[in-house]
Predict the structure of tRNA modification GTPase MnmE.
Amino acid sequence: MSITTYPIAAIATAPGRGGIGIVRISGPDLSGFVHAFFSQPLRPRHAHFLPFNDAHGQAIDEGIALYFKAPHSYTGEDVLELQGHGGTAVLRRVLARCFEVGAAFGLRHAAPGEFTQRAFLNDRMDLAQAEAVADLINASSEAAAKGAMASLSGAFSNQINALADRIIHLRMLVEATLDFPEEEIDFLEKYQAAEQLQSIHDELQSLRRHAKQGQVMRDGLHVVLAGQPNVGKSSLLNALAGDEIAIVTDIAGTTRDRVTQLIHIDGVPIHIVDTAGLRETEDTVENIGIQRSWQEIAKANVILHLIDARHPNDDSDQTIISRLPQHTPTIRVYNKCDLLETSHLDLLPKENDSHLRISAHTGQGLETLRQRLLHLAGWSPNTESPWLARERHLHALDRCDEHLQLARFHAQHDDQILDLFAEELRLAHTELCEITGTFTSDDLLGEIFSSFCIGK
Ligand code: GDP
Ligand code: ZN
């Protein structure tokens, strides 16, 4: 059964030229539309090679028409796919023709993500899976694409559902006990509720760890390069990126605007932000750049504070250190070690988690730096991250954890345990349902689907 009333259409393939271009239409019942468009019915799930004609019977294009009857389609509604040639103009004409024919059926242009939203509303997938559709399309590395596909096939949702089932089971026991107050006293013992709660808690912790990895894999890490002019920030960005994207010069203060480069370390996306060198200056334009640098630094997940290894105790660097945010993980990176005489190596702080020696020119120390960044990203190479997750999933899992802890607290400390215990279990359960979309506000749905591309 479909929830929506009007059909929607959009070009489903990416803008630009391609071998094939697809116009997709979805609606509760497209049989009338199909007949009007082709003057013949189409057999569902069969490839029909046909002309796509205009109002005068002239072919706009010819190609494959595929018809899927509800509910056996992507959206769970009737879906028609017109696969023609992948040119912008020809696809626009085919789409325009669809609207001409579709006017009688109330055909509208699809909003971003509306096909997938319908798939969600028609129970073809849950919300975490619908999000995975967008994540798969947007994946910037093969590892992220693999994770998105795993989420899409339900790997994440299945674990959420399994955990939810265990909470439901416990809730049922509590409700049953509340209905028979005389048994209340030995509820915890009788059903080993404390043990059950403990094992639900353990499972949730493992789920949170994996979700964190999945979120890093999806969103990556924002790393800001900070330091005085000429210490080699842009050179390091280039060395990490492997190609020339920032301007490198000998004149101090060249990188006035920020440059961001997306790199991948073991498939984990890392956004590296190069910034204008930090120093005292009278130059107005340069000062604007320096202000922006501080804004970037404030937003960073990780700060790489670059220091010229030949002057490790420079006063200006001490000033920078005193101004860096206290709570952001910071690595002091001593660059230009290739220029350092061996006798001066002793002047540098010992290498450890927060002090590294590198050379952007020779590549010395860069591999260690990459591994440090992964580690700070919360990434451990040994933990399989089977699926992608989003920030909102992490928050829901955190809140679920809080409610389970409160439930535990009531179980241990409260006289009226059962009512409060039951309520916390209910709230913990609700948080899990938010992830899969069983209970979700329209606002949230709108926000999620509007970030999709049109035609998906
Ligand atoms: P930024 O102002 O901090 O971005 O510094 P740049 O990357 O523009 O580099 C300033 C100067 O230092 C350039 O001449 C670079 O070629 C040079 N430089 C940067 N890193 C190294 C390094 O590791 N070794 C040597 N020898 N020179 C470097
Ligand atoms: Zn620079």
